[in-house]
Design a protein that fits this description.
This protein has no helices and ten strands. By secondary structure, it is an all-beta fold. The chain has one domain: Immunoglobulin-like, CATH 2.60.40. The strands form three sheets. Strands 1-8-7-3-4 form a five-stranded mixed beta sheet, with no helix packed on it. It has a three-stranded antiparallel beta sheet with strand order 2-6-5, with no helix packed on it. The chain has a two-stranded antiparallel ribbon with strand order 9-10. The radius of gyration is 16 Å and the shape is elongated.
Length: 107
């Protein structure tokens, strides 16, 4: 199942991945695409604790919109993953560019 985060352009957004594993799992974030790439960069921060990893984007832009996957693996059994989709609401758009719940949104 994929969760969804809808954010305004330039707003902060945080995705959270909670994992219960023994031994502890290593959690890695990926941006889903062709090819799927590990998330790293100056505008994206990944903070990990014992059971949680957060991917934080300080100022969301069109480059950040899309599907993200967190993958947990502790060396035992299969890798476990979950996905989240970031949907960006741009500051300016035309009627053809945004439809929310079947209603066309315009300026």
């Amino acid at each position: 199942m994929t969760s969804e985060k809808v954010v305004n352009e330039t707003a902060p957004v945080t995705l959270e991945c909670v994992v219960m594993a023994n031994p502890l799992a290593v959690i890695t974030w990926y941006r889903v695409g062709d090819p799927e790439v590990e998330v790293v960069g100056a505008r994206v921060q990944v903070v990990a604790s014992v059971a949680t990893s957060k991917l934080s984007i300080a100022h969301a832009s069109s480059h950040n919109a899309g599907l993200y996957r967190c993958v947990a693996y502790n060396g035992i059994g299969a890798r476990v993953n979950a996905t989240a989709n970031i949907v960006l609401l741009r500051k300016y758009f035309t009627c053809d560019e945004a439809t929310l719940g079947g209603v066309v949104v315009s300026r």
